[in-house]
Design goal:
Elements: H1 8-17, E1 27-28, E2 39-40, E3 49-50, H2 51-67, H3 71-74, H4 87-94, E4 101-103, H5 107-118, E5 127-131, H6 136-148, H7 153-156, E6 157-160, H8 171-180, E7 185-191, H9 203-212, E8 216-220, H10 232-235, E9 239-242, E10 257-260, H11 262-265, H12 307-323, H13 325-344, E11 351-353, E12 366-370, H14 374-383, E13 386-387, E14 389-391, E15 395-398, H15 407-422
Parallel strand pairs: 2-13, 5-6, 5-7, 7-8, 8-9
Antiparallel strand pairs: 1-3, 4-10, 9-10, 11-12, 12-15, 14-15
Length: about 425
């Protein structure tokens, strides 16, 4: 284990030894406050722009201008099959088979599509369990699905709540809820990394507990894809959805991803909302009246995807694929641990870290609970050139994304924060 030191010399030494340091220069950093290049710790909200995204999008703009509609077949990367350029990379990213993943839609659209397929409520088994502090969009989605099926959402949605006085969920409490409500639960939906606290969960253990009770297990990977080493296929997750504009750096509103386990995707009789892009590729353009679904996740597509968004995602995924999530995660553990070390070295009790200290239970995020005027502190940080984000009522989230953040960034952030809290 490396012995950390809270000084600039140590931080510079760590950066000099970082084999991934060169990737920092593959991204554009914004200006902020006093700095021409921000200390950027908001990659869990919106990742930085990859340099190659501009190049790849411009290629498609040029081909559009040159080919018009024929670009679907004649472009350098034909648009008809463009989404396939990111399939294998996405599969490696989340630990899946290529046939189990597809880039399509946005996260909540994909979540609704998965609930259409997997939520089969009965009078006895109609409940959906979610974290009490899950991202609001997930809650809205499951509530509306319950109502759509004629159930009272207040009765149908079971919130998994931390114990009194605690911020984090106990794994035992999740497993106990599954055991206690197994006959009522239809689906358990959890964020593999909680957006607010930064807490990560053991997906394989939860999946096994769900399946022992006949419960479908779905995962929101919004804060996990590109952050943790994932093994969705081997962990036996039923379905997963994720956005790509956070750690995956695909740009604002970037195209999302979807995972459907092989055992479900190969069942062509499984209920779904259908669209022509999920139709058999061999006969798609015959425009027949009957839907013939593709096997695997591709069969759940609705419409042809946005090429410019795919181009931006492709630019970023190439970095992930070259590095590998195991290597990126190794740096992430070290960098986040150094951030924790630097924050804990700041004297006083004006803030506390609510993210687990156990490295195995967190990714590249520390959630900091601030006692006094957290939003004002956020503005002061930005004025000094440090970009983080805020979540109600009192949490500043700091995310040292390892693809482009370094140890000197973390040290400088700590120095700025210490001066601000000292007043």
């Amino acid at each position: 284990m490396i012995e950390f030191a809270n000084n600039l010399e140590f931080a510079k030494q760590m950066d000099a030894q970082d084999s991934l340091r060169k990737y920092r220069f593959e991204f554009y950093f914004p200006r902020s406050g006093e700095r021409t290049q921000a200390l950027y710790f908001a990659g869990n909200s919106l990742g930085l722009a990859p340099v190659n995204a501009r190049k790849y999008i411009n290629e498609e703009l040029d081909d559009w201008a040159h080919f018009g509609v024929e670009g679907h077949f004649e472009a350098r990367h034909p648009w008809l099959s463009y989404h396939e350029l990111v399939t294998a990379m996405s599969a490696r990213l989340v630990g899946a088979l290529p046939e189990e993943v597809v880039a399509m839609n946005s996260l909540t659209v994909n979540l609704h599509l998965m609930l259409v397929t997997f939520y089969k409520p009965t009078k006895e088994r109609f409940k959906i369990a979610i974290e009490s502090d899950t991202f609001p969009s997930d809650r809205y989605a499951v509530q509306s699905q319950a109502r759509f099926h004629g159930f009272d959402a207040a009765e149908a949605i079971l919130s998994i709540t931390p114990r009194p006085g605690e911020d984090l969920l106990q794994e035992k409490d999740i497993l106990d809820i599954i055991e206690k409500h197994g006959k009522e639960l239809n689906i358990l939906l959890i964020g593999d990394v909680n957006y607010l606290t930064g807490q990560a969960f053991d997906l394989a253990k939860i999946a096994a507990a769900c399946h022992a009770q006949g419960i479908i297990f779905g995962v929101n990977l919004a804060h996990g894809a590109g952050n943790l080493v994932l093994n969705l296929h081997d962990d036996d997750v039923d379905f997963a959805v994720w956005c790509s504009y956070k750690y995956l750096n695909s740009g604002p509103g970037g195209i999302a991803g979807c995972f459907i386990h092989q055992r479900h995707g190969q069942n062509l009789e499984r209920q779904r909302f259908a669209g022509w892009w999920g139709h058999n590729k061999e006969t798609r353009f015959k425009m027949g009246p009957e839907f013939d679904p593709l096997p695997g996740a591709e069969g759940f597509q609705l419409s042809n995807p946005p090429i410019f968004q795919l181009a931006a995602l492709r630019a970023s995924l190439e970095y992930f694929d070259t590095i590998g999530m195991v290597n990126l995660r190794a740096k992430s553990k070290l960098l986040t641990a150094y951030l924790e070390f630097v924050l804990l070295a700041i004297p006083g009790d004006l803030f506390s870290i609510i993210t687990p200290s156990d490295i195995a239970q967190r990714g590249a995020q520390l959630s900091v609970r601030v006692k006094n005027s957290p939003q004002n502190l956020l503005k002061q940080l930005q004025a000094k050139g440090a970009i983080c984000d805020f979540r109600q009522p009192d949490v500043i989230r700091v995310s040292p994304a390892p693809l482009y953040c370094g140890f000197e960034d973390v040290f400088e952030f700590g120095q700025i924060l210490e001066k601000l809290v000292k007043g």
